[in-house]
Amino acid sequence: MDELFFKIDQLTHRYVDGTTALKNLSLSIKKGKKIALLGNNGAGKSTLFQHLNGILQPTTGSILFKGEQVRYNRKFLMTLRKQVGIVFQDPDSQLFSGNVRQDISFGPMNLDWSQEKVHKQVEWAMEQTEVTALQDRPIHFLSLGQKKRVAIAGVLAMNPEVFILDEPSAGLDAYYSKQIMHILRDIHQGDKTIILSTHDVHFAYEWADEIIVMSDGEILYHGDPVTVFYNEALLNQAHLEKPWVFETAQQLLEKQLLRDEGPMPRSKEELFQLLK
């Protein structure tokens, strides 16, 4: 039986203005998974992420982390946030130190690590996100894309067990978007879980072990990354398109130009291999 990081039961969140962002949402998040969260703007994705990190409290319902009820006192939240790192869509909401190195170092320095380990983790995170050359630059001199990479590096350096990213490629050009996706492939290990929200269905289809589709504060789908794209009604309801690899393979199968054997290709390379 797979070990659970999170078990969410009947979670509802209502903001002070009366907006209900999550509606009786139940969800289990397993250890070691790569999970892509899809849905249009306003679906409730960011609200859900803030519950996983203890930033928001449920209006009703409960959240368990590693089998323990999430509590909202300082001690518990500090423990939770050492294990669950989140990168917000807007990097300005989490960058506050004077320069790049200081900001990336802040989290690791609060983890009771040795100075040597902090230095090693910060160097590695800067290298992974290609911000080493920016390390002495003041945060307010950075572009949006640079800030985004620094925010990712700051959480990456802390080596959390659950790594949450809210639209990690938003504000990045094509080169750095692709680089971030490569980082996510590289850092994933069997005992870690990565959860990200994205509008890029092509990446989600290729990368994820599981896909969650949200709409209007509810979960429409939680399962494997292939089955969901056969469900035309669900895709229309959630305003999702099919990944081009999936759609191309479907057309080729219908025209009998591709053998109907084995699993659907999930990457360009897998599709091209079948065409050979």
TrEMBL record:
Residues 6-241 form the ABC transporter domain. Keywords: ATP-binding, Cell membrane, Membrane, Nucleotide-binding, Translocase, Transport. PROSITE patterns: ABC_TRANSPORTER_1 (PS00211), ABC_TRANSPORTER_2 (PS50893). The keyword Transferase does not apply. Its main location: membrane. One of its GO terms (cellular component) is ATP-binding cassette (ABC) transporter complex. It is found in: Cell membrane. It is a peripheral membrane protein. The keyword Isomerase does not apply. PANTHER family: ENERGY-COUPLING FACTOR TRANSPORTER ATP-BINDING PROTEIN ECFA1, HEAVY METAL TRANSPORTER. Part of an ABC transporter complex. Responsible for energy coupling to the transport system. Belongs to the ABC transporter superfamily. This is ABC transporter ATP-binding protein. The lineage of its organism: Bacteria, Bacillati, Bacillota, Bacilli, Bacillales.
